Amino acid sequence: MTSEHFDLAVIGSGSGNSIITPDFDGKRVAIIERGVFGGTCLNVGCIPTKMFVYAAEVAEQIRSAATYGIDAHIDAIRWRDIRDRVFARIDPISEGGKDYRVNGPNTTAYLGSARFTGSRALTVTVDGQEQHLTADQIVIATGSSPIIPDPVRDSGVTYYTNENVMRIDELPSRMVILGGGYIAAEFAHVFSALGVDVSIVTRGPALLRQTDEEVSTAFTELAAQRWDLHLSAEVIAARQDAAGVTAELTTGESVTGDILLVATGRAPNTPDLDLSAAGVATHSDGRVIVDEFGRTSAEGVWALGDVSSPYQLKHVANHEARVVAHNLAHPRELRSIDHRFVPSAVFTHPQLAGVGLTERQAREAGHDVVTKSQKYGDVAYGWAMEDTTGFVKLVADRRTGELLGAHLMGPDASSLIQLLIQAMSFGLGVHQMARGQYWIHPALAEVIENALLGLDFGN
Ligand SMILES: Cc1cc2nc3c(=O)[nH]c(=O)nc-3n(C[C@H](O)[C@H](O)[C@H](O)COP(=O)(O)OP(=O)(O)OC[C@H]3O[C@@H](n4cnc5c(N)ncnc54)[C@H](O)[C@@H]3O)c2cc1C
Ligand SMILES: NC(=O)c1ccc[n+]([C@@H]2O[C@H](COP(=O)([O-])OP(=O)(O)OC[C@H]3O[C@@H](n4cnc5c(N)ncnc54)[C@H](O)[C@@H]3O)[C@@H](O)[C@H]2O)c1
């Protein structure tokens, strides 16, 4: 059996691709990718979804224009043009990235599926042919894949996931979305803004339950006005006929759509890797166990991103990739992964964003908690927008003045929260934040200024 040897082998071309920094110039590097080059975020995740979200926002703005004294209406939704704008931008980036690794300097690209066959030994199946390689260091960056509930998979009905729903040729009239998390909330917004009737089936009693309860409750109430919600419900069976795809629910109801979209969470891509052959240990949920430096239980094997991280977020995968890239090249000066203030945003309507502890988590952690919920509608820019639902909720420690968490629902939440991420990351307390700087008047950020000033420390 012939085998090639490398200094470094990276499995997965998402954030794994960015491991190959100039530190590896002159070294022998292999990158292995079994799917579309560039991974989830570029091809079927963050980037295309947000490009669709932008189109959805344009449609919603037109619908709400009359509020501001401007009469406007949508003449047509040209779905194929919306879709093709997105992928005409993305597909060449993916192709270019692949081409660079296939034909570029000092990397060997294996376009196939990798599995471990021993300690730092891999077999890659490329077009049915097995190729063998060994490496001094191996990075597992294989990401995650959609979880398909058994009743859906076993029923044999056609279902979509984030991997193919953005490429459909025609918009359906009705869509059933299974799941009530990030992906469900973003696609429900996109497709309903483009004219599709959306039903959501989720097993929890509210949508986006990982957010602060006040945000999750407020968002669920708004969602109920826009979408047909089936909460505390799971699918027990599904069938497909001339009427479409019908899901029978645990609640006794049934719901029918032309398309069924499954968004019930994502599992780490570890089952195909034969990790036991390399002595790489996993958590009970399949995630690779890593230490603070990104090292797995097997010497010379590292992991990062969705396959190992507690956060399935691109900015986290990129951060972990930067840390692991440094640590591979500087074994005597290891850096730690920083998961202290991991923010996230859901690009639905209205937008949601959060960082730090929820009110409940802060109380459970024993803080003397003070909170303030400040409405967008109470500041001048909020008046300009006629916003009636948006708010900023801050969670702070009454004793120390420390900002513990921030939770936003409303326009530009994903950008506004950056101020609070910065404050928390650099240890700025509430008083410093509120009065230690100018706040531009009458910018929307005044909603954050007022929330900070509204925290009642009792002094
Ligand atoms: C619809 C959607 C929207 C999202 N939106 C956002 C967002 O707005 N913001 C955000 O922060 N995050 C978002 N995410 C999450 C984000 O996409 C992921 O956290 C991130 O892409 C993970 O990067 P990764 O490098 O760990 O994995 P990936 O990018 O998934 O890369 C893993 C790669 O490994 C390959 N692979 C797997 N197994 C093997 C094998 N055995 N052999 C060879 N190759 C293999 C896969 O084909 C894949 O290309 C979104 C996710 C989805 C699904
Ligand atoms: N804007 C962003 O940053 C963004 C966008 C999309 C995805 N993501 C990442 O991708 C991950 C995966 O997204 P997701 O939405 O698939 O997962 P999720 O964990 O956010 O939500 C899964 C949802 O499905 C529900 N569910 C699970 N099993 C079910 C079942 N059998 N029947 C009915 N409901 C069920 C859960 O209660 C939950 O509401 C997210 O956790 C997030 O980290 C991030």
By CATH reckoning, the class of the largest domain would read: Alpha Beta
What's the tally of helices?
12
Q: Overall 3D geometry?
A: globular
Assembly state (oligomeric): single chain
Number of separate strands: 21
Bound molecules: flavin-adenine dinucleotide, nicotinamide-adenine-dinucleotide
Separation, N- and C-terminal Cα atoms:
75 Å
Strand content: 15-25%
Query: Mean pLDDT, nearest integer?
Result: 97
Write a structural description.
With 459 residues, the protein is of the alpha/beta class. It folds into three domains: 201 residues, 3-Layer(bba) Sandwich (FAD/NAD(P)-binding domain); 118 residues, FAD/NAD(P)-binding domain, CATH 3.50.50; 105 residues, Enolase-like, domain 1. The strands form five sheets. Strands 1, 2, 3, 4, 5, 6 and 16 form a seven-stranded mixed β-sheet that branches. Strands 17-18-21-20-19 form a five-stranded antiparallel β-sheet, with helices on both faces. A hairpin with a 2-residue loop joins strand 11 and strand 12. The model has no long low-confidence stretch (mean pLDDT 97). It binds flavin-adenine dinucleotide and nicotinamide-adenine-dinucleotide. The site of flavin-adenine dinucleotide has 35 residues, from helix 1, helix 2, strand 4 and helix 7.
